[in-house]
Design goal:
The chain is mainly alpha-helical. The protein has 15 helices and four strands. A hairpin with a 4-residue loop joins β1 (about 45-50) and β2.
Length: about 350
């Protein structure tokens, strides 16, 4: 009996910080895993070989669409009980409008932009430019929500912003890139910037209007509506042939594995870690996401950082460090004054999911 109880006790001994680190590792590697899956799909084309109409069953479009469907199934299994009449009655019309806006921005628009960016530029570019979101969110929080920030957070945000700009403009001009003042500016980088803007806007709406909405309702509604909207947008822009292979068993078996690992394991670890950790610790752990993401890109895809990425990434890391100093000071002051606040549950989950639906 003692031996049987040991594994159970060992699970309970795992610290909240450990769960946060494991979740961050899963989220940060998701972009590299997504790109690797598309490469696997390219080796298993389906369709009419004689007619020259072959398709990659694990295209980025199919990954996002089917991956969201798999995630939705798993989310319903986990949080479906929250969708009851009593809980839904508590939501106002403003709540539903805000949920719809968030679903469009972070459930359809942002993932679609990031996925399209992945198709036309390097993963490291998408990872680093995605770090534009924190300083944008901070600026919007100060402007629209009247939140206060200290000097460390301000300087850190400026450093990270400059780092992202350097990552973009120091790219050498190449195929598919515009030459602006001697600098290369690619469509992939612009798409990643647009995705960061959409995510920041979604975060601000969530902070202002959705702090009391249960996580299950938030997650399921955003995923469901976002998936439907993305499907129709892609249908209009690219045509029905763009979803060729969406019913392929080969695609679905990989997507259930991918969705199960990212959504179920990753999100479960993150939420479990948050229960016994501070918000500042969660912020610190998630700040390592770009480093792990770039490392994953190298190990999984053999994609080494370029000189522009080294320069911009280094400045981004300086900005992250300064921001963490600011968060530490802010948390210390709140504890000293007895005013300890926390981010709403769904926003904490969003903070951990550095892959932004990828």
């Amino acid at each position: 009996m003692t031996r049987l109880r040991r594994p159970h006790r060992l699970i309970h001994r795992i610290s909240g910080q450990t769960y946060l680190w494991l979740a961050m590792l899963i989220f940060a590697a998701s972009g590299a895993v997504t790109r690797k899956l598309t490469e696997i799909g390219a080796q298993h084309l389906i369709g009419d070989a004689y007619g020259g109409n072959l398709h990659n069953p694990i295209s980025l479009c199919n990954v996002l669409f089917v991956g969201n469907l798999c995630a939705l199934i798993l989310l319903i299994l986990i949080y479906g009980r929250q969708w009851n009449k009593a809980t839904l009655k508590q939501l106002s019309r403003k709540d539903w409008v805000s949920l719809t806006a968030v679903a469009i921005l972070s459930g359809a628009l942002a993932p679609g932009l990031f996925f399209q960016a992945l198709a036309v530029t390097g993963l490291n570019n998408v990872i680093l430019i995605g770090r534009l979101e924190p300083p944008l969110t901070l600026a919007l929080s100060v402007w629209l929500l009247r939140e206060r920030v200290n000097i460390w957070q301000f300087i850190g945000a400026i450093a990270a912003f400059i780092g992202v700009i350097l990552t973009i403009i120091l790219q050498p001009p190449g195929e598919g890139m515009m030459n602006v003042g001697g600098f290369g500016l690619g469509i992939g980088e612009l798409l990643a910037v647009a995705g960061s803007l959409a995510t920041s806007a979604s975060t601000i709406i969530g902070k202002k209007h959705l702090s009391q909405v249960p996580l299950g309702i938030y997650s399921i509604f955003r995923t469901a509506l976002g998936t439907v909207i993305f499907f129709f947008i892609a249908l209009v822009l690219y045509g029905k042939d763009h979803f060729a292979g969406v019913f392929s068993p080969f695609l679905w078996q990989w997507m259930f594995l991918y969705g199960g690992l990212i959504v179920v394991v990753g999100q479960s670890f993150w939420i479990k870690g948050l229960k016994t950790s501070t918000v500042s610790m969660a912020s610190l752990v998630s700040s390592f996401s770009p480093i792990v993401g770039i490392l994953a890109a190298y190990l999984i895809l053999s994609e080494a950082p370029t000189q522009a990425q080294y320069i911009g990434g280094s400045l981004i890391l300086v900005g992250i460090f300064l921001s963490q100093v600011g968060i530490w000071h802010q948390t210390s002051n709140r504890v000293a004054s007895g005013k300890v606040s926390s981010i709403p549950a769904q926003q904490q989950v969003e903070t951990g999911m550095g892959f932004k639906g990828m």
